[in-house]
Design brief:
The complex is a heterodimer of chains A (about 325) and B (about 210). Chain A is built from 14 helices and twelve strands. Chain A is of the alpha+beta class and about 325 residues long. Chain A has a domain of about 180 residues: Sulfite Oxidase, Chain A, domain 2 (Alpha-Beta Complex), CATH 3.90.420. The longest helix of chain A has 12 residues. Chain B is globular and about 65 Å long. Chain B is built from eleven helices and no strands. With about 210 residues, chain B is mostly helical. In chain B, about 80% of the residues lie in helices and about 0% in strands. The chains are: A alpha+beta (about 325), B mainly alpha (about 210). The interface between A and B is medium-sized, with 35 and 34 residues.
């Protein structure tokens, strides 16, 4: 029996076909369908596409996740947020502003091939392809609390590697004071980038940043998976940042660029509303969001309306021992 | 005249004679059943990852929707000479208040979880919650005085008080606009609809200032 395996260097059909042609392949099928039905409506097939989509492939496509090999985390005393909740309650405005929108709209998201570029103030810039994301560094599981700036939180078993490893490999020079991150910009795949209405008025691509010492902190994780598998699209596949002592919006998803820079980089939510979202965005129960208290949070685990899940928010989300030193001479009310 | 034609006329007349009642039954079903379904799903954890947020949003938007429908009735009744529509305004107003109460009580019971200090802080310190609370108090006063005996006793003051519905509508629009992070399009559309409906009653509003 002849078994063909594809080398990563081999081009797929998708790569040699012009993108717009590739994306219109379904329209061709639809038009065939209309003709086959003996209808003369073929010319207006696109006008009817919406009604047809409801029954056809769009809903059937499911984002594929693969099992990962990794060093398991030691037992955690925290109750994990169920996987179904972790993967259905997402702020990923590129796929819509509703919490359930990313799950619904990201199923067809293509992550392979992928390119993550590490560049800027480094001696050895390099690029990771899709497979490299899982092979270049030993993967380990980390169970972290995730505190959203909207005052809800989860406990998630991430899989990934320290951002520090990725940065060290690029050999940063002495001008590397900050790290700037960028999400994929692809309006054809991300409806929120195409439409202001769907994307919540955010300027895309989404950008985030860390100070170099924050980036090199051992807690800072580049995550490629959760709950034992590669990341679901709606959680930021194929690779995202996880900074557990900062509000969730710092943990940028679906990253294509990591650039070491000399000056503090712009960050998306700070651009949008500087008074509400600072560059540091460290979890801090003493500094309220202008519109709601940050003193406590609701921990999302299982349980319906009656779950008594309001708990006190801890400084640095409970990771003060590991990170507070980095901010010891700073006024955290000013640098929120 | 055939028997079917007679039946048709009778059916039509029965319908016309009872249209207010039928409309009220429809309002009850369309308002109460969704609310019931919402809480059943939420209590049994079948309403997404964060049922608390779903319940608060659904009841808030629901209260606003019903209030706007109640405001559209008078202009509609005038334009199409369908006076009977006015007889459903009280029921709609009461349902809007019911949804708004569910909104507030869910916030107290499930969001801040009976932390009364936090509850009071949020209402007094967050402008968007303050205006929402004021709107709810207005709706509360309208609901309290909605019974016929009080309406008669209050005379002219009743109408004065109930003109407060326009103020409540504006405050709710503001409450919605201020509550979102960045996606202001939906609350923006609501605000435009609210302003439009109020502008339809501009003659009435002008008369207050004479």
């Amino acid at each position: 029996m002849l078994i063909k395996t594809k080398k990563s260097s081999q081009l797929s059909e998708q790569q040699v076909t012009d993108e717009s042609v590739y994306h219109s392949r379904r329209d061709v099928l639809k038009q065939l369908g209309y003709l086959g039905a003996g209808s003369l409506l073929a010319q207006s097939a696109t006008a009817n596409a919406g009604a047809l989509d409801f029954f056809s492939s769009k809903k059937d496509v499911q984002f594929q996740q693969q099992a990962l090999k990794f060093q398991q985390a030691s037992e955690s005393s925290e109750i994990l947020t169920p996987e179904a909740k972790v993967t259905s309650h997402n702020n990923f405005y590129e796929f819509g502003t509703g919490k359930g929108d990313p799950l619904e709209n990201a199923q067809a998201f293509k992550v392979d091939p992928w390119q993550l570029k590490i560049s800027g103030e480094v001696d050895k810039p390099y690029t990771l392809g899709y497979d490299d994301l899982f092979k270049s560094f030993p993967l380990e599981e980390r169970i972290y609390r995730l505190r959203c700036v909207e005052a809800w939180s989860m406990v998630i078993p991430w899989i990934g590697f320290p951002l520090a490893e990725l940065i060290k490999r690029a050999a940063p020079n002495s001008r590397a004071k900050y790290v700037a991150f960028e999400t994929l910009y692809d309006p054809d795949q991300m409806p929120g980038q195409k439409s202001r209405r769907i994307g919540g008025g955010v300027k895309y691509p989404y950008v985030e940043g860390l100070r170099i010492d924050e980036a090199m902190n051992p807690l800072t994780l580049m995550s490629v998976g959760l709950y034992g598998k590669t990341l679901p699209a709606q959680n930021g596949a194929p690779i995202r940042l996880v900074v557990p002592w900062k509000y969730g919006f710092k943990s940028i998803k679906s990253i294509v660029g990591i650039k070491l820079v000399e000056r503090k980089p712009p960050t998306t939510w700070n651009i949008l509303a500087a008074r509400e979202y600072g560059f540091y965005a460290n979890v801090n129960p003493d500094v309220d969001h202008p519109r709601w208290s940050q003193a406590s949070e609701r921990r999302l685990t299982s349980g319906g309306l009656l779950a008594r899940n309001r708990i006190a928010t801890l400084p640095f989300n409970g990771y003060g021992e590991e990170v507070a030193d980095m901010y010891k001479n700073m006024d955290l009310r000013k640098y929120y | 005249m055939s028997a079917t034609a007679v039946n048709n006329i009778t059916f039509k007349q029965v319908f016309l004679n009872n249209r207010v009642l039928l409309l009220k039954i429809a309002i009850h079903l369309l308002s109460f059943l969704p609310l019931l379904a919402l809480y059943v799903l939420a209590f049994s954890d079948q309403l997404g990852a964060d049922p608390v947020k779903e319940v608060i949003h659904f009841t808030g938007i629901g209260a606003f929707n019903i209030l706007l429908i109640s405001l559209v009735l008078t202009p509609l009744a005038k334009k199409y000479r369908q006076g009977y529509l006015l007889q459903t305004r009280r029921l709609l107003g009461l349902y809007s208040f019911t949804y708004a109460m569910c909104h507030l009580l869910s916030f107290l019971a499930f969001e801040v979880q009976f932390d009364f200090a936090l509850f009071v802080d949020e209402i007094t310190e967050r402008p968007y919650i303050t205006v929402g609370m004021v709107a709810l108090l207005i709706l509360f006063s309208l609901a309290l005085t909605s019974v016929n005996t009080l309406k008669r006793k209050m005379g002219k003051n009743w109408q004065r008080l109930h003109n407060g519905v326009y103020g409540a509508t504006l405050l709710i629009a503001l409450h919605f606009l201020w509550s979102v992070k960045s996606d202001i399009i939906e609350p923006g559309i609501y605000a435009i609809i609210a302003l439009f409906l109020i502008s339809l009653r501009r003659d009435k509003i002008k008369r207050w200032f004479k």
